[in-house]
Design a protein that fits this description.
Largest sheet of chain A: 6 strands, mixed
Helix content of chain A: 25-40%
Distance between the termini of chain C: 50 Å
Oligomer: heterotrimer
Number of helices of chain A: 5
Number of domains of chain C: 1
Structural class of chain C: alpha+beta
Shape of chain C: globular
CATH class of chain C: Alpha Beta
Structural class of chain A: alpha+beta
CATH architecture of chain A: 2-Layer Sandwich
Strand content of chain C: 25-35%
CATH superfamily of chain A: GHMP Kinase, N-terminal domain
Shape of chain A: globular
CATH topology of chain A: Ribosomal Protein S5, domain 2
CATH superfamily of chain C: GHMP Kinase, N-terminal domain
CATH topology of chain C: Ribosomal Protein S5, domain 2
Order of helices and strands of chain A: HEEEEHEEHEEEEEEHEEH
Radius of gyration of chain C: 20 Å
Chains: A alpha+beta (about 325), B alpha+beta (about 325), C alpha+beta (about 280)
Number of domains of chain A: 1
Order of helices and strands of chain C: EEEEHEHEEHEEH
Largest sheet of chain C: 5 strands, mixed
CATH class of chain A: Alpha Beta
Distance between the termini of chain A: 27 Å
Strand order of the largest sheet of chain C: 1-2-3-5-4
Chain lengths: ~325, ~325, ~280
């Protein structure tokens, strides 16, 4: 039954975390094994699947579509930028607590978090004009096709297929991998004069380009405060014992792209600053390893293509 | 801080999996059979059927669980392995919710406190019922139930508590009635909880095991397993006032925690590789796991190796 | 489809406003803030009063110059939740009035408001003694009448809700004060680093480090490259909520957290004063 834990178990987990031996033997700073694969869905511009040993399974897809630019009526900003629209959905099959309306709050929370950290902040629809890249690192100006009229809109959709704890990290890792994998067709713009433009999307499957700025995308590290300590990558039972949770979004260069506290407890300011620092260093290590893995996969695929072998993505049950 | 990324790989079917002849008509209950279908395909004595498939047309057989009769033919109603015991034919499904018998030892989680009874989640199709009259009240086995006990039920068991109990009876709708009338049953403390598929736990003489590494294991037939620190218990010395306390014992050392975590990971490894779980194979798996550091034990290859070594060790023991 | 209201045309454009010829829009290059009376570390003066809504068990009204919002608290009253729960439930709902922001908002609660409601509940729950009110619900309703800066709205909502809860006589461990800050990039002219004497080592060099503006208003927020909202319990010394968006260096974030904690202590004094006044009046 999800959501229930006994006081004895809670106490056992708490004391275990204090002496750095969690219930499954990990230390406070240890992640479970992550299985990552990109390019799993053919109908998308980019996709990735992240599985954390212990049950979390997230599928993220990126679809690039052409649409009108969104201009802020007051500042006139946004006429030369593309957009990123994020959404997260927890499939009702993922866990008993997700069926019906149960997942609505969680979906909304994760969607807002993704929007806040990856595209422009939800507070301000207009991005500061000094940075054409929002906190998400993606160069939005490059996504514009005809200034003032048409642009690429990247729809980043995450689907949670199975719940085993630590959804936020999995979703962001998947988003980064999916955008890494995304290829956008090139466009040719013709100036018809008189302010009229026409553009054509080049159909060549080989002539596509990567999303510029994809290396600067942030990923998240979730720190759960249990007792006076904090852990990463919590299992479902550990999440039930969490007093307060801090999600730290950090990018490759160590800049903090956002933080959000969750759950119903308080954190002392000095512990808060310590957690932020820890999240930052952990996140940078995580990005390095994630990038290494993505590069490895891309190289392997390229090698296969050069040898003339077909690149098969393994089916969904490949362990 | 450590994190590892893993790439999915094709698993060759003969990957060191120990395939053993199904001893289908052998009454030996302590077999460590490989229940997976792949070994069945190679092994002619294992008969795998799907719903609606004909098992036999011989009317001399009595039919058991998982079968039905149509026009004098015995057909299967579940997807599973045919089990033939003398004249009784039944089909044992591969993956199932718990269906139990009277006398089964089960581990359950309290979900609800109702009038004079508790509802217990047993991983079955209906919640089990634990009547107030089926528990030992603090102060002695013979203490009579009073009115005040009914009003104070939450001081005994609360929502979320874990109990070990025995199936006493069935209600008319099929719900199990469980009791904790013996001193070895009751509230669970000092350890952590694991859930495996119910079909993997076999019936045996005792479900309370005290392993040599100082860890107690309770194998619930419904697939819920409790791994805890060893509490030396003389049945006469149990403090009847403390049976419902939620306090864990004070002196659980880090070494104890490591053993508990290791055993828990071994059980998970066995469950993931579809191996029957009993005390002997857990001990072998524990020894096999000692060569791996505790934090690596959640990796798929490590889990696989442990399961394979344990099954080989059990085979060798049988000689 | 919303049939109850006449929505107006789907595509509507805000009217063009012509500023007077000598109107100069504020930019980060300016030495001073948008509100020239304030220093970067100053907050706007707070007007806080309880007792605005008669029907509610507790209520508060807060004004931060052009940010105005009203909060009503109902409870503890019987909860609708079936099934046992050892402690009460805090149910927060925040709604921006349709005329509160520059662009007209819809009548229905949009996802952003739903998330804000969740944030509010997470910020207030550590302070309220919910274990004393099992099976009951405490409802907090906030209406934003005028919004001058998103961060300041959220901070003001947290502050007003705490005061309203105290006004309703609900047992709490401490008052929660909320405050916000924005990271404004300094212009090409060398901007002085933040006035605080504590470590101002900026990895990117003094001319490029953003300035921390406490309690930024709407004009300043347009140029922000990041923002932070913090909720803090002064007596218990615990942060109950933190939300940071936009890119920033670790040192800037740590600095802003410290500034916000200091500001929350000052806000606490204002909250305390407002409550003492209201109790005094009723005597």
């Amino acid at each position: 039954m999800p959501g229930l834990i006994s006081p004895a178990e809670r106490d056992y987990i708490l004391k275990g975390i204090e002496c750095n031996i969690r219930a499954d033997g990990r230390q406070r700073a240890d992640y479970r094994e992550v299985t990552l694969e990109t390019g799993v869905i053919s109908q998308t511009s980019g996709s990735a699947r992240v599985r954390i040993a212990g049950g979390t399974d997230v599928l993220v897809s990126v679809k690039a579509e052409i649409g009108p630019v969104q201009v802020d009526p007051e500042t006139g900003d946004g006429a030369d930028k593309g957009q990123i629209v994020c959404s997260v959905e927890c499939a009702p099959s993922a866990s008993q607590q997700f069926e019906g309306r149960g997942a609505d709050d969680l979906n909304n929370e994760l969607t807002q978090m993704m929007t806040r950290f990856l595209s422009n902040s939800t507070s301000n629809p207009s991005v500061s004009s000094t940075a054409s890249a929002g906190a998400g690192g993606i160069n939005l100006s490059k996504l514009c096709i005809i200034p003032g009229q048409q642009c690429w809109i990247l729809f980043v959709d995450a689907l949670v297929l199975d719940y085993g704890g630590n959804l936020v990290d999995a979703v962001f890792m998947g988003a980064r991998a999916a955008i890494y994998d995304t290829r956008i067709p090139k466009t040719e713009v013709q100036d018809l004069g008189d302010g009229q433009f026409e553009f054509e999307v080049l159909d060549d499957a080989e002539d596509t380009e990567f999303v510029e700025g994809r290396e600067n995308m942030p990923i998240c590290v979730t720190l759960n405060k249990i007792g006076a300590r904090h852990i990463v990558d919590a299992s479902p039972l550990e999440e039930l014992c969490t007093e307060a949770r801090l999600v730290v979004a950090v990018n490759r260069s160590g800049e903090l792209c956002g933080q959000q506290k969750g759950h119903d407890g308080g954190i002392e300011p000095s512990l808060l600053l310590e957690m932020i620092q820890f999240g930052k260093t952990t996140g940078q290590t995580l990005i390095k390893q994630l990038d290494a893995r993505l590069q490895e996969e891309a190289d392997a695929d390229l090698a296969k293509r050069q040898r003339g072998e077909p690149v098969h993505k393994l089916g969904f049950f490949a362990q | 801080m450590s994190i590892s990324f893993h790439s999915p790989a094709v698993r060759t079917t003969n990957d060191g999996v120990v395939r053993r002849r199904a001893v289908g008509h052998d009454m030996d209950l302590d077999d460590g059979l490989e229940g997976a279908a792949e070994s069945a395909m190679k092994d002619p004595t294992l008969h795998v059927v799907t719903p609606g498939e004909l098992i036999t047309s011989d009317t001399a057989f009595m039919r058991g669980h998982g079968t039905y009769i149509e026009q004098e033919k015995v057909l299967s109603s579940v997807a599973g392995v045919v089990d033939r015991v003398n004249k009784l034919i039944s089909v044992r499904p591969l993956h199932t919710r718990y269906t139990g018998e009277i006398g089964d030892v089960v581990v359950g989680r309290i979900t609800e406190v109702a009038q004079k009874r508790w509802k217990v989640d047993l991983n079955a199709r209906l919640d089990g019922i634990l009547m107030l009259s089926s528990v030992n009240l603090p102060g002695g086995v013979q203490r009579r139930k009073q009115e005040s006990d009914e009003l104070q039920m939450r001081t005994f068991f609360m929502e979320g508590d874990l109990v070990v109990a025995e199936v006493q009876n069935f209600f008319a709708d099929g719900a199990y009635s469980i009791h904790t009338r013996s001193l070895k049953y009751g509230k669970l403390r000092n350890g952590s909880f694991i859930s495996v598929s119910p079909g993997l736990v076999q019936r045996s003489k005792s479900h309370f095991h005290s392993l040599s590494c100082g860890v107690d294991v309770i194998l619930g037939l419904n697939g819920y397993i409790w791994v805890s620190a060893h509490v030396s218990q003389d049945l006469e010395e149990i403090d009847t006032e403390q049976v419902y306390s939620n306090k864990n014992k004070e002196d659980i050392t880090p070494a104890d925690r490591e053993s508990i975590a290791r055993i828990a990971n071994c059980i998970r490894a066995l469950a993931q590789n579809f191996v029957f779980i009993n005390a002997t194979i857990i001990s072998f798996a524990y020894e096999a796991s000692l060569q791996y550091p505790l934090k690596d034990m959640h990796k798929k290859e490590v889990m696989r190796d442990i399961a394979v070594e344990a099954t080989t060790a059990v085979d060798n023991m049988r000689g | 489809m919303d049939r109850k209201r006449v929505a107006g045309p789907e595509l509507s454009v805000a009217p063009l406003v012509e500023y007077p010829r000598d109107h100069k829009r504020w930019t980060p290059q300016d030495e001073q803030r948008h509100d020239t009376k304030r220093q970067p570390e100053d907050m706007r003066p707070i007007y806080l009063k309880t007792g605005l809504i008669n029907q509610a068990n507790g209520s508060a009204y807060i004004e931060l110059e052009k940010t105005k919002l009203a909060c009503g608290v109902y409870g503890p009253r019987p909860g609708k939740r079936t099934g046992f729960s050892g402690h009460g439930v805090l149910n927060c709902e925040i709604k921006f009035a349709t005329f509160s922001c520059a662009k007209r908002r819809g009548h229905m609660r949009d996802p952003q408001e739903k998330e804000l409601s969740q944030i509010l509940s997470q910020a207030l729950t550590p302070a309220v003694r919910l274990d004393l009110v099992p099976k009951s619900t405490i409802d907090i309703f906030i209406t934003v009448l005028e919004s001058d800066g998103w961060g300041s709205c959220v901070a003001a909502a947290i502050t007003a809700a705490s005061v309203a809860l105290a006004h309703a006589g609900i047992e709490m461990l401490d008052l929660v004060a909320g405050c916000s800050a924005a990271y404004i990039p300094s212009g090409p002219s060398i901007a002085s680093p933040t006035p605080s004497a504590t470590d101002a080592t900026n990895a990117t060099g003094p001319s490029l480090a953003p300035r921390i503006f406490m309690d930024a208003d709407l004009e300043e927020e347009k140029y922000e490259q990041g923002a932070i909202v913090l909720a803090y319990m002064p007596s218990l010394n615990e942060v109950t909520h933190m939300l940071q968006s936009g890119k920033a260096e670790g040192s800037i974030v740590s600095q802003s957290v410290e500034h916000c904690v200091e500001a929350c202590n000052k806000i606490y004094a204002v909250m305390h004063h407002a409550l003492v006044e209201s109790v005094g009046e009723n005597k």
